[in-house]
Structures
1.
Amino acid sequence: MKRRRRLVRFAVGGYPALDFWPSTPIGRLSKMKEILGDLTRWRRQGKRIALARVVDIEGSGPRLPGAAMAVNEDGEVAGSVSGGCVEGAVVAESLQCLDEGLRRIVTFGYSDDEAFAVGLTCGGTIHLYLEPLDW
Amino acid sequence: MTDSSPEGSIFDILSAAIAAEAPVALAAIVECAVDVAQPDDAGPVIGAKILIRPDADPVGSLGNPELDRVVVRDALGELSAGTTGIRHYGPKGEARREDVAVFVESFAPPPQMLIFGAVDFTAALSRVAKTLGYRVTVCDARPVFATTQRFPYADEVVVDWPHRLLEKVGPDLGQRDAICILTHDPKFDVPATIAALKTDVGYLGAMGSRRTTDDRNRRLVDEGVSERQLAGILAPIGLDLGARTPEETAISICAEIIALRSGRSASSLRNTAGDIHD
């Protein structure tokens, strides 16, 4: 697919590792339905929330569009969008999204070789749409 | 970006619909060419949303009425197929343009599997089908066998003739849904199959040996079923895995459903080449 202003980030290096467990176990993808409880609770508490949704996949990833993950202003995480390889990076991007209020597509790519190096089971590129949940 | 309606924000309406398992689709602009996304322009901008339900007016807007109209039409199609993905449009909804990328996310109710016949295979199949996310209905006319105790994984156990159940629920079934006929008793099989052929289900399978299948086919032809319709029935049901137990048979049936949906050969990946996922 053609993309303008593609922003490519690599999950290998440059991002902090996840140092906590999201409410959905890593490795198990979550759909919006499964994080609704967390989202609703955070909204009621008046917390600012960044929502990341998988909008497109390239390569041999089994992840389907629609996987969703959310991060609130305190850095609490709900859901998971991959087998655990990009979650740390998504948290970093989400907190930045909350700071800047920007809506954009973030792309994480990894080759099969890099995937092997960080312990991923398959290569591919994952496009996430990231935005503040202010709607 | 808060779009208020009498029902609350878009998120409120969306979460209420998802919680109620009512069909709903959310379309959002996720990419927008620079020249159509001027900050002071009323046209399409990143983050604009419209919420689509089959039985209610859309809530929100993508910034242009023509774009809204086209996206609502396409999103209703995505919703009935249960698919999610990005579609491209011009700023006024023009086809064959790439200016605006709209992410359409379907929140469709779970697909349905109707299993006819309250036998051992039914218990195993209902369990595997639940794992795959189906809403499972077991139907058999014999009240002694069709009990919730025997089918704890089924969402519903109906004591009735399968063809009578289909008279009620048949029109609501679509391509994502499946009917599995496990009765292998011609008295139930034949009217059930004839009724199932009148639905739009994406998968229709009937259990039985080759001899049972031939016998059933003859009876169906006698009842006026065409050769073309017969070819649409997966019988004997399931993939050729050499399955013996009810559990193994359930896997072989569900694997056949997956292979049919994806149009794949169902051979070992070792023996094929190319992409593993579409």
Note: Chain A has one domain: 8-132.
2.
Amino acid sequence: MSVTAGLDLAFVGQASPPAVAVGGPLLSRLIPLEPDSETTPGRTPINDSACEHCGLPVATGRKFCCPGCLAAHDIIQGLGLGNYYRQRLLDAGARALRPEPAERWDLARHIVTKPDGTKELTLAVDGLQCGACVWLIESVLAKEPGVLVGRVNMTTRRLRLSWQGSDQDADRLVGRIEALGYRLVPFDLSALAAMQDRTGRMLLRSLAIAGFAAGNVMLISIGIWAGQSGAIGDGGIGPATVSLLHWVSALVAMPAIAYAGRPFFASALAALRHRRTNMDVPISLGVLLVTGMSLTETIAGGAHTYFDSAITLLFFLLVGRVLDHRARGQARATAEQLLALRTTDVAVIQPDGTIRRVGQEQVAEGDRILVAAGERIGVDGVLENGAALLDSSLVTGESLPVNAEPGAAVFAGTLNLGATLTIRATATGGATLLAECVRLIEAAETRRGRFVVIADRVAKRYAPAVHLCALLTFLWWFFGVGVPAGQALLTASAVLIITCPCALALAVPAVQVVATGRLFRGGMLLKSATALERLAEVDTVVFDKTGTLTEPLLALLETPDALDLHLAATLAVSSRHPLARSLVAAAGAVVPADGVIEFSGQGLSRSTPDGEVRLGSRTFCGVGDAPSAGPEMWLTRPGAVPVRFCFGERPRQDAVAVIQQLLAMGLRVKLVSGDHADQVARIASALGISDWRAGCTPVEKVSLIEGGGAEGQKILMVGDGMNDSPALAAASVSASPSTAADVSQTVADLVFQGAKLEPVVIALQTARQAKAVMRQNLALSIGYNAIMVPLAIAGWVTPWLAAAAMSSSSLLVMANSLRLHKGAKS
Amino acid sequence: MFYLLIASLIVAGCGLMVFLWSLRTGQYDDMDGAANRILFDDAPPPVKPL
């Protein structure tokens, strides 16, 4: 029995299942017994400070950090899946596998029943570490009776579950996976996502067909060119053979062009119908004209056809489209996943006193709703009982929690920092604060002008110029030189083929793919196609304060004695309360203490041989009833003075550096907040922002942004609160941290993950570089045209020259775009 | 030569058909998962196409 050295991730090399079966005595497993490790020498932990299941730190000599991990380990070993621990690679970026008390979901309403009686459910999975997790989940599900399909998609991090049985089975199956430490959230495929998927497949299918046709037609064409140049055959090939080969080319290419060209034709038609022009108009026109001309040539038995050029062009363009779609689809899917993992159900108190968990949209006016300590309120309502401590930073931008009395109005998105409370839903559907924000967003979006992307701006001038050029060529050859109409038309068509904007149409998408991918790897999700170009033009950055410049959760302000902090954290790590989490975050890696009992909304307590240790509110710890100055926690233990932990707003770690960088980039930086003036002034001076406004309502924020826009400023709005969402929509481009309110994340063009503000700078820099490369690409392709068009007008362009020139210019543009990728690495 | 032409088209056509089939059965939906699945021996149950 040897320890596997390759995967030394704090796990025991277990070649045989451990002796203890499922449900072994809890205490004896939490503290490893000495004889056990003596009889099985291989079971000595490689790194004895990490939990065998979740990999989080544990006290020396212990194997598991908590009973949940022990139970999960037992399940896995009991099913004979112990291989999992040897195969997996823990991902530091993913959520640790420590099982947590799961939210109760009303799964039934997400289940789809198929006509044959099988049930289907899609869930977002949180906590996937690597391929081994996929295997583990699927294997565990496969052992459950009735399961037909349990498949995890690792790209989208979703689990598709289908089983034979009743709706209630869903709870059992989901419970099995959650016991392993994963979090599962019901995920209803939105209409948008389904459409995205369809478009993606359609593009891929078009690409395949274009590729098939391009390969074959090009092969035939090479034969024709070689034959015509006299390289093969006895002094060339005869006109009958050429005609046959042209016919075969036509038969292969034309259906393929009709199919694979649809994405371009549809887009061009839509643009023309709105009396606009985009890059797809010259593409479609070029392809159709070339195909039509080649067909007439084939019928007439002419020498030159250009089917190969037309279909190769479509193939290259489709490659760009598919990659572009894939890159942005991935960013969007990840953004959706982030949102799905945060949605929670609402606990409605039934008339008989029981609790039923329903979706937010199912709450009726007048329903009584229970909000647990540390939970977000799901709907707008009136506080019924319980003097509540509410953190509404995500709703109004106020950074300090407020005490609310019964009868006060509360809004969806507010965090309950106090004890469990009851609210009565007052407004649902169109009357909520959220609905009001959505109306403001829609209004702001209609006022905001349509952004014309650089490619379309070029197309606007390029298309008429090219078509005029072709017309003049025809006129000159027909009237000027006096050749027959057919030959003049042929030369004019050659001009169109040469100018068909292959490289030009690839110039922008190719850059977008590389830049979007680069941002994606950095944790920035670029959702909009035009956002990159809009970002590059930004000259003013407007920040929200609460949750954007400052950390999203209240932070521990003064660092008390390190030992006190550590002791408090060992208790706090057992709680999901926001203040407890901040405390744990400040303490770093801690080992959870045993026997911690949570008193909801009051605090945590633990019995030790010396007496009781308590961590919680002032009254819970018996320190006194005097009202506190701000959010706080107390730690009491026998024989020591009570310790106070103060919480408050703190700027993000790198906020000062980011502001300095933005100023150095020549940007104006403003701060617009809904919070009180003194709080805003304090943060503004700490960060060195001179231009700030406090106490702004959502409407004021919008008018401020629009006022700046009217003066010609290109504004990047960075905000997280629900109150920022209309301003995000009004700005020329917008960004949100992934901790932002759902509505803000949905509106924002860019969502960034992580605790830092730096992504804002990186995104701006990447966008500027991308814009520069786009310009180079456009210059390259226009330069290529400048050389080739005179040759075409002179009538020297043959089909092989056209094909070669077109492909090489496309490859050149793609290679230039890839430089952006390389630049990111160095 | 005519037969060669037909033959090459048929062979390439078969390739195209196989690709379209793989696309329709969802084999391009999870590129990362497939790369990892091969590492685990006892395969989970087969999947029916949607």
Note: The first strand of chain A starts at residue 112 and ends at 113.
